[in-house]
Amino acid sequence: MNTRTLINTLLALSFVAFFVSCTPSKPTGNVSLHSQQSNIINGVDSTSDFQKQNGVVGIYIMIEDAKGNQGGAICTGSLIRKNVVLTAAHCLTSTPDMQIVGGIVFFTTGIEEAMKQMDKGDHSNLRKFAKITHHELYTDAEVVGSTHDVGLIRLNEDAPAGFEMATILPAALKDSLIAGASLTLSGYGVSSYIKSSNSEEFVGGGDGVLRQVAGIKVTEIDSTGEEIVLDQTSGGACHGDSGGPAYLTVAATQTAAAKTYLVGVTSRGEEPCNKDSVYSSTLGYKAWIDANLVKILQ
C-alpha cells in the first residue's frame, strides 16, 4: 500500500470536524514578499533526539476539491502543549475551490518511517487533527505588512512520550532577537529546488524528511514586531517547511544556562528559496497564541 493510500485510509477511519476562523483583511507594516510555501535547503538530516528535544512535528493536510478529487500537502509545526501544535495559517486554510477535510501529525523524522509503522498496524507516532484555528486577519495576498500567518492544531490525544514542548522566547529576552542574530531553522520541506531541465519551472525534491540548518541571519524585524526577515543566500526554508520553527539560542549567563527558544514560524519567501524568507514572530503573536490556546483547548 502506498503512502497516499495509507494516509487516506487513516483519515477515513475517523473523520473530524474543524473550527476554522477565517475572515482575512489587509494589515499594514513594512515587509512585502510574495507568499510561498516553504523547506530546508543546504541543511542536514535531524536526529530523533533533536526532534524530541525541540518538539518538531510533521503535518500532512488532506484536501478535496468540489468534484471530490483528493490530494495532500506537507507542512511542519512545533509542539507548544502536549496536544497542541503551532504552525502557519496558510497550512490550515480552506478556499472556495479546495477544502481541508482532515489531517495527521507525525512524530517521526520522516513521513515514510511513519507510514511503514502504520502499514504494520502501529499508529503510535501519528495523531489526528481534532480542531484547528488560525489568525482571524490572515491573508495570502501580496501585501505590505504582516500576513498574520499563524495557526494552531489541537490533536486527538497527547504527543508520544519523550517529546518536549518548544519554549517561546519570553518578552524579557526580546533584545536578543535583533538584526544580525543567528537562527537555526527546521522543517520537512524540500532539500533541493532547481530549474527543470526541460522547462523554466523550479522543481523540488527530498521533502518529507526532517532537516535543520544553522547560521541563518536575521536581516530585519518589521515595525509591528510581528514578522522576522531572514537572509537565505546560504540556505534556509523552502516548499514544505511552512509552519516550521526558527530557533534562537541565548548564551549562558552567571545565573542561567544557555537555552534555545522558538522565535519564528515559517511563513513565506522569494523564489527560488535563496533570497529572503519571512517568519511570523512568536513574540509578536504571543498574545494571540495564548488567547487561542485557551479557546482551542475548550
Topology:
Layout: H1 3-13, E1 44-45, H2 48-54, E2 56-65, E3 70-81, E4 84-87, E5 98-106, H3 111-119, E6 126-134, E7 151-155, E8 182-187, E9 192-195, E10 202-205, E11 211-221, E12 227-231, E13 245-250, E14 259-269, E15 276-281, H4 286-296
Antiparallel strand pairs: 1-11, 2-3, 2-5, 3-4, 4-7, 5-6, 6-7, 8-11, 8-13, 9-10, 11-12, 12-15, 13-14, 14-15
Q: Care to describe what's here?
A:
The protein has 298 residues and is mostly beta strands. It has two domains: 3-26 and 55-165 and 287-296, Trypsin-like serine proteases (Thrombin, subunit H, Beta Barrel); 171-283, Thrombin, subunit H (Beta Barrel). It has four helices and 15 strands. The strands form three sheets. The protein has a six-stranded antiparallel β-barrel with strand order 8-11-12-15-14-13. The protein has a six-stranded antiparallel barrel with strand order 2-3-4-7-6-5, surrounded by four helices. The longest helix has 11 residues, at 3-13. The protein is globular and about 50 Å long. The termini are far apart.
Distance between the termini: 37 Å
- What is the overall silhouette? globular
Query: Low-confidence runs (pLDDT<50, min 5 residues)?
Result: 9-39, 192-196
Helical amount: 10-25%
Mean pLDDT: 81
CATH architecture descriptor of the largest domain: Beta Barrel
State the CATH topology of the largest domain.
Answer: Thrombin, subunit H
Give the class-level CATH name of the largest domain.
Mainly Beta
H/I helix tally: 4
Main beta sheet: strand number and arrangement?
6 strands, antiparallel, barrel
Biggest sheet: strands side by side, in what order?
Answer: 8-11-12-15-14-13
Q: Which structural class do the helices and strands define?
A: mainly beta
Please state the CA-atom Rg, rounded to the nearest Å.
18 Å
CATH homologous superfamily descriptor of the largest domain: Trypsin-like serine proteases
Beta-strand share of residues: 25-35%
H/E order of the elements?
A: HEHEEEEHEEEEEEEEEEH
Number of discrete domains: 2
